[in-house]
């Protein structure tokens, strides 16, 4: 009888933005699934690998070589071509971005360079290296592309109306991915992800800003928090659930675009209330607009103030996603609900601030 040779399929992932919130959860997921994971990191004057530090400590990922980091940048085509030609990935996850909507008004050109042209550069590096017919490509598209409400809830067919330089750049990223799929037969997908959070969320996004403040106020390290638009509504999920959706999209036979959301929307004000509830503080609201304050019902102390500094020139008022397509076609649904998400973030920040009050 002839010997059967089993050829293991190469599972090599290249992740841009591996040092970010999603990159860190995705790297964990891929390593657990047996991938060799290559991440692109930026040179920085201080450590920017805090979120993936634990993967070094794990001998499986570090010493046994499941994780490799390469210096690079989405604004630098040369390095992208070099990294792609060395790594020859089977899957690419393009998560790298200037991802802060408010900052994008200050850094509009840079945001377009990284988030829009950066996506083009990476897609083209794959073509240059002859991988366009074999690689699977995930693009981190966003609910910010829907922007000004055209339809509720928002799904794959809802028209885009971005409201920030970030949203505009991501619309370019979305369409260049569709174009490369159609023009060059690439397996390329857009995940249109609604807001997703976690204890690893960047400190200047509203959820993490709130849970950090709740922790500090509880531990008497801070008196109050200043916020912008309390009425904006978002469909908030957990990053751990959302990276699973990214991977699932690339395991399908046919490349398609999917909305990923919880199908539940809450205002910033509701997030504040839910976060303080975790430490048994009830918030009561007084005043209007810039004069609105939130008080601790039990003590009467002001714990929330509105500061117009945090308003945006144009705002996305209301986002609510419909992820029926993802549920039906790729079998994705979230594990976390809103209350679990808020509680996990508040508890993590209390533990963090207790251990390190200057964090
Ligand atoms: P983060 O801001 O936490 O992470 C962004 C990552 O991109 C970081 O690793 C950052 O590196 C890297 N990066 C920034 N600029 C460049 C550049 N010029 N070249 C290469 N890498 C760069 O974002 P998230 O993890 O929250 O989001 C991941 C992706 O998903 C982003 O593209 C974001 O726009 C998109 N998205 C996020 C959603 C969310 O709710 N979180 C929802 C929908 C889409 P460094 O650590 O050095 O700064
Ligand atoms: P967003 O997230 O803009 O939706 O983009 P962010 O948490 O920054 O804002 C959510 C809403 O909260 C309002 N808000 C404040 N926001 C911040 N950051 N700071 C404040 O003090 C504050 N007060 C009120 C905002 O006006 C907004 O309406 C995130 C990013 O992760 C993007 O990269 C991603 O594409 C989208 O989510 C989906």
Automatic annotation (TrEMBL):
Keywords: Lyase, NADP. Its EC number is 4.2.1.47. CDD domains: GDP_MD_SDR_e. It catalyses: GDP-alpha-D-mannose = GDP-4-dehydro-alpha-D-rhamnose + H2O. It holds the Pfam family GDP_Man_Dehyd. It is an enzyme of class 4 (lyase). GO terms for molecular function: GDP-mannose 4,6-dehydratase activity. PANTHER family: GDP-MANNOSE 4,6 DEHYDRATASE, GDP-MANNOSE 4,6-DEHYDRATASE. Belongs to the NAD(P)-dependent epimerase/dehydratase family. GDP-mannose 4,6-dehydratase subfamily. This is GDP-mannose 4,6 dehydratase. It comes from Sinanodonta woodiana.
């Amino acid at each position: 009888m002839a010997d059967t040779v089993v050829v293991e399929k190469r599972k090599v992932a290249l992740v841009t933005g591996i040092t970010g919130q999603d990159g860190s959860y995705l790297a964990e997921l891929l390593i657990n699934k047996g991938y060799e994971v290559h991440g692109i990191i930026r040179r920085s004057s201080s450590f920017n690998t805090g979120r993936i530090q634990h993967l070094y400590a794990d001998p499986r990922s570090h010493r046994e070589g499941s994780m490799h980091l390469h210096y690079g940048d989405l604004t630098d085509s040369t390095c992208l071509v070099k990294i792609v030609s060395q790594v020859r990935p089977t899957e690419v996850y393009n998560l790298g971005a200037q991802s802060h909507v408010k900052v994008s008004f200050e850094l509009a050109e840079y945001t377009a360079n990284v988030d829009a042209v950066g996506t083009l550069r990476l897609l083209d590096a794959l073509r240059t290296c002859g991988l366009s017919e074999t690689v699977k490509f995930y693009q981190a598209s966003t609910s910010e592309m829907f922007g000004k409400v055209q339809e509720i809830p928002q799904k794959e067919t809802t028209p885009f109306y971005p409201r920030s330089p970030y949203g505009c750049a991501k619309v370019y990223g979305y369409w260049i991915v569709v174009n490369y799929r159609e023009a060059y037969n690439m397996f390329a997908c857009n995940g249109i992800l609604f807001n997703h959070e976690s204890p690893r969320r960047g400190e200047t996004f509203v959820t993490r800003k709130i849970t950090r403040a709740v922790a500090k106020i509880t531990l008497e390290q801070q008196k109050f928090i200043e916020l912008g638009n309390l009425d904006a509504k978002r469909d908030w999920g957990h990053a751990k659930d959302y990276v699973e959706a990214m991977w699932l999209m690339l395991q399908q036979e046919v490349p398609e675009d999917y909305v990923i959301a919880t199908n539940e929307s809450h205002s910033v004000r509701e997030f504040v209330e839910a976060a303080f509830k975790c430490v048994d503080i009830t918030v009561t609201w007084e005043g209007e607009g810039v004069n609105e304050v939130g008080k601790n019902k039990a003590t009467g102390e002001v714990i929330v103030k509105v500061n117009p500094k945090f308003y945006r020139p144009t705002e996305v008022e209301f986002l609510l996603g419909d992820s029926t397509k993802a549920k039906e076609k790729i079998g994705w649904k979230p594990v976390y609900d809103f209350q679990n998400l808020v509680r996990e973030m508040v508890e993590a920040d209390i533990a963090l601030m207790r251990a390190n009050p200057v964090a």
